[in-house]
């Protein structure tokens, strides 16, 4: 048995400081790193949802057509998802701190450009630029966090805070988007990024410098082209599946082309001397389990956010601001799960003891909502609040251990690639979840209207939502079943090995 299969993965420090590890100056620098990285994480996650709420106002102000308006969302998603792996490689080559700063400044500038847009083309271009810089910012930030916090207890707290920002960011984006659009202007949904980015830049001045990876400086050009076009094609197909349907020739062509390109990418990476994404990173059992868990969690949760927005507004009659405020319950529960549960238990229990209960908790929240009917009374206290709490706790428990595992036990020159793979998993899950579950809901709604006698639009909509959430419930259960064998057997072996090591005369396996 190899020792690597027994010992829990650890991150390798990317920098050295003159302070002793326990010194107060060193500790302050580490927590400034957490502040800066968390602010950047908020920027990236916030922009995934905040513009959605303001899009109708932006469309009216800039004269967008109905056919083109979706590019305000799609341009960001394509650039971000398509360039993540390249961003991770750039972060390794230039240094995580330097790449992080470049990403922050570029993201702030492109946000200001989008807020000042005078026509649709200017807005779409700015959103694409935001995605480009986010693709460098996200993996660089996660890499900085992983290399800064290596002591298990501090690492747990740091990843708990980082994950709480990510888990709550989508819900906060809906709230902030509604408030800014209603009381200020849709442009402030983009301008708000500038002060947040400046705060992160100030925090970064206290982050210790890291060492860029030494190498020949050559980029894996074939891998870069295949990954960018493959991921972009898949994300675009998911985005188009919502308005066009999964049977559309355009969707099927883009999806098949994307899968073929990503298959070719995997084949190229196996033989590349300096691969963009070393395939062996995905073969680590715990890391594979973490990536599968976070992907499927995002598939379910982004469909959940979509339906909460639709249900509260179209069925319950909430305003956009009220609908967003209802999701604050979910954000607070995610904060509790990531900081008070996962953050405290990190390093004390096996990752599976957080990931599996998190998936089951989120699945239970989905199951509660499948019991909704058009006649349901006391919906907020009886259905919505328990569901929002359980899904928030589940997401909060899952994100810290999966983010930590994705970047743990890595060589210095591979941390950026692992961080990019983790972010890419989230992006693909979010895009697939929104498209897949919305399509299921729309099909179930249409079928109900066609088959049920005296069916009302409200009843049909509720049927569509509960059908899609039943699928989301099944996805989370499937995620738990797939993740369990990737984590539990390894934990059992580790416990047996630790017991053997305490027996006299027992040798450590080599």
Automatic annotation (TrEMBL):
How does the entry describe its membrane topology? Multi-pass membrane protein
Domain named Major facilitator superfamily (MFS) profile is located at 33-492
Q: Mainly localized where?
A: membrane
**Composition-biased stretches (Basic and acidic residues):** 1-10
tRNA processing among the record's keywords? no
Q: Which Pfam families match?
A: MFS_1
- Where in or outside the cell? Cell membrane
Q: Does the keyword DNA-binding apply?
A: no
List, alphabetically, the InterPro entries matched. MFS, MFS_dom, MFS_trans_sf
Q: Which UniProt keywords apply?
A: Antibiotic resistance, Cell membrane, Membrane, Transmembrane, Transmembrane helix, Transport
Q: Where is this region: Disordered?
A: 1-25, 490-510
Q: Which PANTHER family match?
A: BLR6921 PROTEIN, MAJOR FACILITATOR SUPERFAMILY MULTIDRUG TRANSPORTER MFSC
How is this protein named in the record? MFS transporter
* Naturally occurring in which organism (per UniProt): Streptomyces rhizosphaericus
Q: What is the lineage of its organism?
A: Bacteria, Bacillati, Actinomycetota, Actinomycetes, Kitasatosporales
């Amino acid at each position: 048995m190899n020792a690597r299969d027994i010992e829990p993965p650890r991150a390798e420090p990317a920098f050295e400081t003159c302070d002793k590890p326990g010194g107060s100056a060193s500790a302050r620098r580490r927590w400034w790193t957490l502040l800066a990285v968390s602010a950047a994480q908020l920027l990236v996650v916030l922009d995934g949802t905040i513009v959605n709420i303001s899009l109708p106002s932006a469309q009216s102000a800039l004269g967008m057509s109905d056919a083109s308006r979706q590019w305000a969302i799609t341009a960001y998603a394509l650039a971000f998802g398509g360039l993540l792996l390249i961003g991770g490689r750039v972060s390794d080559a230039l240094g995580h701190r330097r790449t992080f700063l470049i990403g922050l400044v570029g993201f702030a500038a492109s946000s200001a450009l989008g807020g000042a847009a005078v026509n649709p083309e200017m807005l779409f271009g700015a959103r694409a630029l935001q995605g480009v810089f986010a693709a460098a910012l996200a993996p660089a930030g996660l890499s900085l966090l992983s290399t800064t916090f290596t002591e298990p207890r501090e690492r747990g707290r740091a990843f708990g805070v980082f994950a709480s920002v990510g888990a709550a960011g989508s819900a906060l984006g809906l709230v902030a988007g509604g408030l800014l659009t209603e009381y200020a202007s849709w442009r402030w949904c983009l301008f708000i990024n500038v002060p947040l980015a400046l705060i992160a830049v100030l925090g970064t001045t206290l982050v210790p410098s890291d060492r860029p990876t030494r190498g020949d400086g050559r980029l894996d050009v074939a891998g870069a082209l295949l990954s960018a076009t493959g991921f972009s094609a898949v994300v675009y197909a998911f985005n188009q599946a919502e308005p066009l349907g999964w049977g559309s020739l355009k969707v099927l062509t883009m999806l098949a082309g994307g899968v073929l390109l990503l298959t070719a990418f995997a084949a190229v990476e196996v033989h590349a001397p300096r691969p963009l994404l070393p395939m062996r990173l995905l073969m680590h059992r715990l890391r594979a389990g973490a990536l599968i868990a976070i992907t499927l969690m995002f598939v379910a949760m982004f469909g959940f956010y979509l339906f909460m927005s639709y249900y509260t507004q179209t069925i319950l009659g909430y305003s956009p601001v009220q609908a967003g405020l209802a999701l604050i319950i979910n954000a607070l529960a995610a904060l509790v799960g990531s900081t008070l549960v996962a953050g405290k238990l990190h390093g004390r229990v096996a990752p599976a003891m957080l990931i599996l209960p998190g998936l089951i908790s989120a699945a239970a929240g989905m199951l509660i909502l499948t019991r909704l009917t058009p006649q349901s009374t006391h919906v907020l206290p009886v259905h919505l609040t328990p569901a929002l709490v359980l899904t928030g706790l589940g997401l909060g428990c899952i994100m810290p251990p999966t983010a930590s595992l994705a970047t743990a036990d890595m060589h210095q020159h591979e941390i950026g690639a692992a961080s990019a793979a983790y972010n890419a998993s989230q992006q693909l899950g979010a895009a697939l979840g929104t498209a897949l579950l919305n399509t299921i809901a729309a099909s179930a709604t249409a079928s109900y209207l066609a088959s049920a006698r005296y069916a009302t639009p409200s009843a049909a909509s509720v049927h569509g939502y509960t059908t899609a959430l039943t699928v989301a419930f099944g996805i989370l259960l499937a995620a738990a079943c797939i993740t369990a064998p990737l984590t539990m057997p390894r934990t059992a072996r580790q416990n047996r090995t630790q017991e053997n090591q305490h027996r006299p005369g027992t040798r450590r396996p080599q």
